[in-house]
Amino acid sequence: MTTLDSGVDSLADVTSSEDRLRRFLLGLPGVDQVGAEARAATLGTRSIKTTAKAYALDLAISMIDLTTLEGQDTPGKIRALCAKAKRPDPADPTAPQVAAVCVYPDLVATAKHELKGSGISVASVATAFPSGRSSLAIKVQDTKDAVAAGADDVDMVIDRGAFLSGRYGLVFDEITAIREAAGDAHLKVILETGELVTYDNVRRASWLAMLAGADFIKTSTGKVSPAATLPVTLVMLEAVRDYHEATGLHIGVKPAGGIRTAKDAIKYLVTVNETAGPDWLDPELFRFGASSLLNDLLMQRTKLATGNYPGPDYFTLD
Amino acid sequence: MSRFEYAPAPESRAIVDIKSSYGLFINGQFTDATDGKPFKTVSPASEEVLAEVSEAGPADVDKAVRAARKAFEKVWGPMSGKDRAKYLFRIARLIQERSRELAVLESLDNGKPIRESRDVDIPLVAAHFFYYAGWADKLEYAGVGDDPQPWGVAGQVIPWNFPMLMLAWKIAPALAAGNTVVLKPAETTPLTALAFAEICQQADLPPGVVNIVTGAGRTGQALVEHEGVDKVAFTGSTEVGRAIAKSVAGTHKAVTLELGGKAANIVFEDAPIDQTIEGIVNGIFFNQGHVCCAGSRLLVQESVYDEVLARLKRRMGTLRVGDPLDKNTDIGAINSAAQLAKIRELSQIGEDEGAERWSPECELPAHGYWFPPTVFTGVSQAHRIAREEIFGPVLSVLTFRTPQEAVEKANNTPFGLSAGIWTDKGSRILWMANQLRAGVVWANTFNRFDPTSPFGGYKESGYGREGGRHGLEAYLAH
Fold this sequence. Notes:
The complex is a heterodimer. By secondary structure, chain A is of the alpha/beta class.
């Protein structure tokens, strides 16, 4: 087995030039689409009941990055979202808090103020989210603004155009620049897998982001369809598992967009459990980027505890 | 934070109604056996007795063959293909309607996980009947002459590893082609065949078209040696297949045999590694390795041996062994005490011959027949575990350096049922597929079945094909 030091050294070597980086990424083992999708489908058939379901529902709630990323967002909307983040179920104080609230940079200060002392992080998208089509200077400034406003997590997007045209060095340099600009904030790197299309690309982009200093790799902005899918998340979980094997470092994974039901969320947790392993069943290492998912989790949670489904009006809109 | 432990998620047994005893299904009726002693079928996961089943003796077999002959001459043979198709479509729909019940029954009697009986076996059973129903009125287009005719009465003997799927592989093409059948299910797994007899009644299938005679080797022998049988179809061990081939030699009977295997699953250094590991696991641990085409010999290119083995062991650690009816079980029970003894014996021989044995830590239930998923490393071509069919969850790992060496090692077996190739290089897949002496070659997948795809062996893995247009050919005189 590779020791931690030699693993880090050899990977540092990989990023010493664009040519080496390129050869490394293109040399990663391929992903067979049929096989990867079949594996995800099989994991999706796990039957999670009773005590396991109760555990999974609470874990899923505690992993949510409760998100609103709309042009129409207002400070009022953010305050409501933060109240919900702190106490997701008004009728049940035992429901856990979510992990973070995720907003645009201009609303970070509002969220930060609302969440003070709660332990809930504020995540901000940055770097000309969602398209990433802007100069590096603007992306860096966008990141600095978010951090200055108090963002604990920065969710950046990669330059998909550069990635798809094979300019891996450019993508790498951009991530390292944002990594630096983000300072102590957690860096989540959004791959926008719906635009990368192939699982081979997803694996390469995952490694590229990890090598460049990502704390988390994230599937999607939520603005492109398809957003998160189970097979894409499976491939990313395999990447963080293999990266951990090589370096000893734990990188997180965040599927975002399109996960709306408790049933789906549980399939993701099963996939985490049986791919990266139980270490990743922790909000520090796995998050859901979601909004409507929370209400379904709360509804299932109440059903499990009381035997009855409350109507949707018993849960808050945001 | 505590770990994510999956709570038990058992599929309910309430859906199946197992009778305390079963007769033989002859001429559309369940009838008592006249000359055999009843025997018990047990659940291999608990050793619980599920039912008492009649043993058909030579007189019973004779009765069944006569009923089949009469149905062939009076009803089924003269019937138009279009009308035969109606019955087959009806049977297929009834199987779908009763799929959950059949899946539970199969898992109870056989020991296979409900995930497999529910998601693989029973859907494929229905698919086979649907597929061959479509052929019943199109036989002249099957490519076997412009006026193909059925043989008459087919005597069919099937194994215990896929009880209902093997029944479908045998009965669906036989009936579509216009034959009538007498089928003997394996003595350890008769219950789904008896449930199928009920489905035949439900479908109003004319009496005598399908007859089910239960029993062991003696019953099977009486069936294949019966003079009134025109076509013999057997799936099972090479040893029994050889005896059947001898007994039908020099008679008028047509015969197809689907026998054992010792398939090579060949992994090249450029394989899609994570899917390859899944394929290795699926190749050998699917259905507890009770699969004639199981990928029981893993051939790994030396340059990726360490990585493949480390990943395989890690993956094996996540396999869930236990109650077949639990929806999260990956590996169920070994079908019988006799099979368990054979797996244990061959595994012991593997150790004695110097191979290194490894299994993940797993707790096996106290009752029933169980064997942990096992991998042997340091295996050479000369070892018995690399040559003999173990028919259990036991994988032998060998290495190779060049594609030529892989082909030589893969083909160096008396068997030739299946093989697997794992590589990202399309040209190599095609080259390998041409070199491998195996009836089925899977590329970047393993143990995939479809009614439209022919299946069968080279060499001592048997002859004839089942499935697809080719499977129809076996039931038509031309």
